[in-house]
Specification:
Length: 427
Amino acid sequence: MDPLDIVMDEVALEGLDGVTILSLWIRLEKRNPVFPRNLDSCTKEFIWKSLVSNHEVDFYELPQERADVVLVDRFADIDPDTGIQEASHWDRVDSYPVQILLEDKSGIQGSCVFFKERRNVTPIIRTTKLTPCVTLEDAFKRWGRKLVMVASQRLRFRVLIGDGGDPDLKLTDHSYCILERVGRARWQGELQRDLHCCSFKTDARKMHYLRKSLTQNDLITMQSHVLRLASGAQQHSILLLLKRFHVDRRSKYDILMELTSNLLSEAPNHTASMITLRDQLSISERTFKRMYQYMQAAKLVQVVIKPVEHLNPTVGPCDTRRGTKVVARCLKLIKPYVRKEVVEAEDDDDNDDDDGGGANRKTVPTEGRIMERDFLSQAYGIIVSCGTKGISQSALRARMCIGKLESRMICRLLERTDMIKVKVCDV
């Protein structure tokens, strides 16, 4: 990637909040892959001129200075053997508090705490012909950490969805802000638990629905993440990353267990001696012992004793001086290793295929919403019109043209007021 394209990429990834001059240098210095130029004063001035001359970048003055971005590597505290992150005692300073911009008429989406308060100083920094009016040194002396550079909506959306994304895709304001937050985290990603507890301060179930549209449109990836707290307890969460920043992170023993399972599946009778397996894996005896103990605990293998001549018939009969058979400790594969996937507990009606929702949406005719009547009255009228056979929740939401969450809340409220009875039926 061209160095100037890299700079624009970093500015766009910061989102609607924009990036200060000093934070941009921090991002470029810590960038992965490494920024291909030395960030001396001449290079910084050249980068500044390129940003000023770019019509996709606007400049704003914040009402107060913004703290420099603090980059923390969450993977530095991960145990390479177990893949579990040790809880570190550091104060997380969030330079980008969440303030969602809702239903902007100009089509701008994102999170910006000073969106209405900040002042556009682009006409001061450049002319209408994109000629710089202010040098980097003068700009920093005048505005300091109050000056932020913000990429256009088109450019910010493009870096989030990637080259293969659909530019015409429409996301809700909340889902877009989650995507923006995940993109700003780059290779570190965001834990879903941190998003709903700290950043967005919302219910975990709501966060699940907001995030679901991003996974359905293949914009982000998910992988399990385990954090060991100071008390020793393990805290499980989901790590969200943009597709372009996805890295398949697995522990050493996770990889060894998969390799061992593959070796045993190809061995005769799915059985092989421990010495042979250890030599093929090229690992120490201590590591091998811990690895097969993990597999035993997961009920993937069992330890068996086999005569050597059964393992390798070419060696012929092998007897000891006492006349007993020479035996070897072996591992026998009980069931093949399956990689762990991120699985979330969802309600039965979350899956389109569970209650025939996909088919019902195609076969059930929709009914226009009657805006003078409330949803509860309309839903109750539809249920009554279906008689004693009733109607499935998926068919109800298809006829009313509403979402799953709305239909579920309507049914629960009607059931709570004893207006309907809900039954689970086989389809």
